[in-house]
Amino acid sequence: MPELPEVETSRRGIAPHITGQTITGSIARAPKLRWPIPKLDFLKGQTIHKVSRRAKYLLIRCDTGTLILHLGMSGSLRVLPSNSPAAKHDHFELVMGDIALRLRDPRKFGAVLWTSEDPASHSLISHLGPEPLNSEFTADYLFSQTQKRTAAIKQVIMDNKVVVGVGNIYATESLFLSGIHPARAAKRISKARIEELHRHIVEILRYAIKRGGTTLRDFQQQDGSPGYFQQELWVYGRSGEACKSCGSTLKHKLLGQRTSAYCPQCQR
């Protein structure tokens, strides 16, 4: 599933190509993805002014409102010539003369929505917590949130009401680098350890975005391969293998229906 760094990479990849463009049409090849795709004929003639992101939602600001895109579990975006043949799972595209922004979503868990209001007030967005790379997400803020929670720390940092965009991969890796067991009750973790966790969350997300940003040219290719961040992972997906730090066998635990790999020696 695309996580925040992958969505931010997508934003940076498409923005230079579509910002300032005039929309000449839109095509919906499926009636719905996660929700019905609205009729967008009124967008013809409108200008794309800005491409931004809130959590995993991409926001394409036009003259009269905002197009909200979500990549779901398997979606990807590409910018390509508008006369390029559509592939099997190319369910939606925004046409701008000779180019098109095309959404490919094999599992149809993505979304194409429209709002004429401030997108921050949209029902899917209004309840979200702070962005992890913005100034409001501080170590003090994270500590204040953990003091209210008896849930496992991993579940807390993956809660979008606490902070957005810390998905399974980045939560697992950040907890390992901080030496914190993913199942430890959030309120039982000291402020010093929460400060360390905060630092690693920010650092790993920034690094993931930086790595993803090295192959943005791929958004112009027919296959749409966006060069998602690939990291030398410490623990994620490595249960049963040796810990790269101490050599112990990595274990895993099910938390909130997500498998959480961890090192029984390095993480307490």
Poorly predicted runs are 213-229
Q: Return Rg in Å.
A: 20 Å
Task: Give the termini distance in whole angstroms.
Answer: 28 Å
Query: Biggest sheet, strands in spatial order?
Result: 1-6-7-5
Largest sheet: 4 strands, antiparallel
Number of DSSP strands? 10
CATH topology-level fold name of the largest domain = Helicase, Ruva Protein, domain 3
Q: Estimate the helix proportion, in percent.
A: 10-25%
What's the gist of this structure?
The chain is α+β, with helices and mostly antiparallel strands and 268 residues long. It has five helices and ten strands, in the order αββββββββααααββ.
Describe this structure in words.
The protein is of the alpha+beta class and 268 residues long. The chain has 2 domains: 4-121, N-terminal domain of MutM-like DNA repair proteins (Alpha-Beta Barrel); 139-262, Helicase, Ruva Protein, domain 3 (Orthogonal Bundle). It contains 5 helices and 10 strands; from the N terminus they run H-E-E-E-E-E-E-E-E-H-H-H-H-E-E. The protein has helices spanning 4-18, 139-146, 153-157, 168-178, 191-212, and strands at 25-28, 50-54, 57-61, 66-70, 76-81, 90-96, 99-104, 111-115, 251-255, 258-262. A 4-stranded antiparallel beta sheet has the order 1-6-7-5, covered by helices on one side. A 4-stranded antiparallel beta sheet has the order 2-3-4-8, with helices on one face. It is elongated. The relative contact order is 0.15. Mean pLDDT is 92; it is low at 213-229.
